[in-house]
């Protein structure tokens, strides 16, 4: 017959085993305790291993179509990419306001030849006219800040998945979606994701990468 002390030890070992198993699961599921949420873990993963983006055809506010790879890689600048839809009256307006200030800062630093902004709409209704109107409202300068749509639904979905953008249809033709600043290097790779509340950090990161030798 086991003694009370032996039973206590057995119980303690069982509890310890459960704790260790749970800790191991948390460790691997949160990138080594560095992130608890899936979004944070994704941002760490991108920072550690830059992501090559899928191909997509962009439709510009000027009405011209161009390939994403050409737009990002052949341009030669570090790009800060954001996602919006033109009818958005909430978070997109916040991001748009921050982008206005980032555009002004890029100009003030004389960095327009090294850093630029690209905003992509995930709303299939945002044609060239809608993008042009949004650009005028935001006072975007095409030399620094360009606006695009993605007309092909399958390409749009793949690109949103690659950037980690979640879009859910909402009433009255609106969308619920997350927002962030995505830094893309000269090679067209996604290298960092920053929260939409960190525009200064996003721009500083882009500036630092732009200062690196090619």
**Low-pLDDT runs:** 12-36
User: How many beta strands in the DSSP annotation?
Assistant: 10
Rounded to an integer, what's the Rg over CA atoms? 22 Å
Strand order of the largest sheet: 1-10-9-4-5-6-2-3
Mean pLDDT: 85
Shape: globular
Q: How far is the first residue's CA from the last residue's CA?
A: 74 Å
Strand content: 15-25%
Distinct helical segment count: 7
Q: What's the SSE pattern? A: HHEEEHEHEHEHEEEEH
**Which percent bin holds the helix content?**
40-55%
Classify the secondary structure makeup into a structural class.
Answer: alpha+beta
User: Could you describe the largest sheet, including whether it forms a barrel?
Assistant: 8 strands, mixed
Question: Any descriptors?
Answer:
45% helix; globular; two-stranded antiparallel ribbon; 8-stranded mixed sheet; 22% strand; alpha+beta; 214 residues
Characterization of the model:
- With 214 residues, the protein is of the alpha+beta class.
- The protein contains 7 helices and 10 strands.
- The chain has helices at 4-29, 38-48, 68-74, 91-108, 128-138, 153-163, 199-211; strands spanning 51-52, 57-60, 65-67, 78-84, 115-121, 145-149, 167-170, 174-177, 180-184, 189-195.
- The termini are far apart.
């Amino acid at each position: 017959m086991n003694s009370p002390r032996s039973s206590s030890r057995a119980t303690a070992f069982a509890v310890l085993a459960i704790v260790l198993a749970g800790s191991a699961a948390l460790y691997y599921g949160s990138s080594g305790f560095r992130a608890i949420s899936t979004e944070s873990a994704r941002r760490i993963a991108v920072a550690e291993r830059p992501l090559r983006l899928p191909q997509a055809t962009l439709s510009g506010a000027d009405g011209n179509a161009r390939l994403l790879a050409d737009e990002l890689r052949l341009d030669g600048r570090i790009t800060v990419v954001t996602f919006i839809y033109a009818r958005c009256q909430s978070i997109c307006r916040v991001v748009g306001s921050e982008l206005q200030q980032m555009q002004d800062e890029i100009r003030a630093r004389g960095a327009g030849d090294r850093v630029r902004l690209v905003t992509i709409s995930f709303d299939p209704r945002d044609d060239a006219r809608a993008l042009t109107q949004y650009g005028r409202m935001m006072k975007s300068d095409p030399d620094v800040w360009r606006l695009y749509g993605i007309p092909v639904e399958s390409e749009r979905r793949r690109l949103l998945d690659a950037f980690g953008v979640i879009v859910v249809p909402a009433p009255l033709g609106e969308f619920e979606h997350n927002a962030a600043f995505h830094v893309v290097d000269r090679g067209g790779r996604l290298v960092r994701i920053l929260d939409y509340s960190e525009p200064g950090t996003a721009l500083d990161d882009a500036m630092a990468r732009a200062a690196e030798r090619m």
